[in-house]
Amino acid sequence: MAEIRVEHLRKAFGEFVAVQDSSFTVEDGEFLALLGPSGCGKTTTLRMIAGLELPTGGAIRLAGEDVTYKRASERDIAFVFQLFALYPHMNVRKNIGFPLLAQGVPKAEIKARVEETARLLQIDHILDRPVSGLAGGDRQRVALGRAIVRRPMCFLMDEPLGTLDAEFREVMVRELRELHNRIHATTVYVTHDQIEAMAMADKIAVMNHGVIEQFGTPQEIYDRPASMYVADFIGSPPMNFIRFSAGLPKGARAAHIGTAEVEMPELRRDVAPGELALGVRPEHVRFSDASPLRGAIYGSEYLGTNQIVTVEIEGGLVRARLPAEHSYAIGEPVGLTFKSERLSLFDAGSGRVIPSVLHEGALRQEARHG
Amino acid sequence: MSPAKTTTVNTAHSVVEPSSRSKRIAATLVIVYALVTMLPLVWIFLTSIKSPPDSISYPPKILFTPSIEGYCNLFTTRTRQTPEYIASLPAPDGVCDAVTRQRNMVIAGPSNFLPRFTNSLIIAFGSTFLAVGLGTLAAYGFSRFKVPLADDLLFFILSTRMMPPIAVAIPIYLMYRQLGLSDTALGMMLLYTAVNVSLAVWLLKGFIDEIPREYEEAAMIDGYSRLQAFRKVVLPQATTGIAATAIFCLIFAWNEYAFASLLTSGSAQTAPPFIPTIIGEGGQDWPAVAAGTTIFLVPILVFTILLRKQLLRGITFGAVRK
């Protein structure tokens, strides 16, 4: 196992820049999820780490060795493809043993290691079946088996659960995480599914238009989004943005939105007058009749354990995650309060977060990762 | 939309077991078509086992005494002798000897059919091997790599088929004479390869395009070079396409007549220009010609039957997915 260090990685396809100036480090044994919408450059980044795509610029180091322009076959990595890419003309046993055959491992050892891997993944009963008739989950396990049998320095996975149905995906998410806990392999996992990323990853890199918007633990990314894009991408429903315009001094602990004063974490720098957005997670919104921030019920979605209530206020719509027992009539006037220590303030122009007390832990983290 | 209309639409798009009536109609059509197609072949075979007088009798004989004279004449050259001389010979050695003597002839030696047939085998299979080999590599290149001007090159390759090959027969004849390639097996192989390689590239590119790149990428990540990945992962999956392409190439090279009659006359002559020359003086030896044709049909028939599944997929290529 080894750490993966990506330095100023860049990839352009002609005019189109797929990845620009990405830098991050996946530490030894860490599970990193590259998360973003399709076309954000996450798969291209992964393919460059694998050696299936040559970077336009930058460097990739595997366990300290510069592998930027090395062939895929010369990097000690395993790759799980979205559609698994199981060799259709081979049975399960041969598929799993194929990487060992390339390394010239003796036949008896191949047999032993394939069987050991199959037991680990609980597919030892299908070893001699052709891969064409396998169910989605078994194909997935065979693909994983082919990856782990060679004990590579790291695993790269490109949306491996993308083709499975939702119910089964949850099972596989759990299995993948358990597998990771057992073998502690450095893993880079590409997905567009925030739930998968949150559930499995030690670190998440949120990508957009070829740029890493934020790199951090799932909790940092959820609680302290670095940009409005990240705040909007993560969470369901996403973070509310209440737009207002103001200028605030360093140390400010409240802002005026309309006539109401809203408390928030102490700002760590001056904010020049301009358009701002206050970011509020739906679960940090509460109703309080006494609050000066007024709105009217716009609609609600009942989710069983709780409900999402949408309130129309002066700056737009705010969604609140509330206990399910109370029902609200459309048009009913309500007052809103926010859990002030969990709010984020964004510069609405650039979309970047304005540092406050909330970020002090997170900023230290980011500095460490460059 | 009326309910009746909806039903019609559904029926058209769903897979319904064909009715027994439409099955019967289809079966009848297939049988009639098969008979029409088979008839000339059956006639050739029947002619090959007729005696020369039976073969040219009018009206044609449907019922006749089978004779192997055609096959005897195909494989031998004979000289006419006086009955006295024939009577003076020792007892005939084998069936053909006896049959020949009845016609007041004796076997003078083997005919050229066997060497010509061997030429056909060597040239057709050799050129097919070359065309499919080169075609597979070229198709893989076009399919997987960014080839500069790929579309223009592919069009150029295809354009070599737009003109009937015989249109360039004279220039090729002159070129071959200069290069010492006329009447050589190598020359014929090169020529058929050149004609077939364009077909091979186009057909195989279609097949290789269908094989997802991920398989090779997976193999390369598993530690194989691109060439190894091509051999161990792409080729096994392209066998269907390769077989279909091979059969198309083989059929062309096997049947080709025009170039063969122009460029070969002696040692490298193939069966197609040779078979008509069997007719012999007097123009009566149709059974021998038919026998040559029958034997000539066998290899391609065997090859086609062996690869019929691949051939079918080759014809519908791209339309059927696993």
UniProtKB/TrEMBL annotation, chain A:
Keywords, ordered alphabetically: ATP-binding, Cell membrane, Membrane, Nucleotide-binding, Sugar transport, Translocase, Transport
Residues of the ABC transporter domain: 4-234
GO molecular function terms listed in the Swiss-Prot or TrEMBL record: ATP binding
Gene3D superfamilies reported in the protein's UniProt record: 2.40.50.100, Nucleic acid-binding proteins, P-loop containing nucleotide triphosphate hydrolases
UniProt keyword annotation of Membrane present: yes
PANTHER family: MALTODEXTRIN IMPORT ATP-BINDING PROTEIN MSMX (PTHR43875), TREHALOSE IMPORT ATP-BINDING PROTEIN SUGC (PTHR43875:SF15)
Family, similarity comment: Belongs to the ABC transporter superfamily.
Protein name as it appears in the record: Multiple sugar transport system ATP-binding protein
From TrEMBL, chain B:
Record-linked CDD domains: TM_PBP2 (cd06261)
PROSITE patterns to which the protein is assigned, alphabetical: ABC_TM1
Membrane-traversing stretches: 25-46, 121-141, 153-174, 186-204, 233-254, 286-307
Cellular localisation: Cell membrane
Gene3D superfamilies: MetI-like
Span of domain ABC transmembrane type-1: 117-307
Matching SUPFAM superfamilies: MetI-like
Topological relation to the membrane, as annotated: Multi-pass membrane protein
Keywords: Cell membrane, Membrane, Sugar transport, Transmembrane, Transmembrane helix, Transport
Principal cellular location given in the protein's record: membrane
Keyword hit for Iron: no
Family: Belongs to the binding-protein-dependent transport system permease family.
Protein name as annotated: Multiple sugar transport system permease protein
Higher taxonomy: Bacteria, Pseudomonadati, Pseudomonadota, Alphaproteobacteria, Hyphomicrobiales
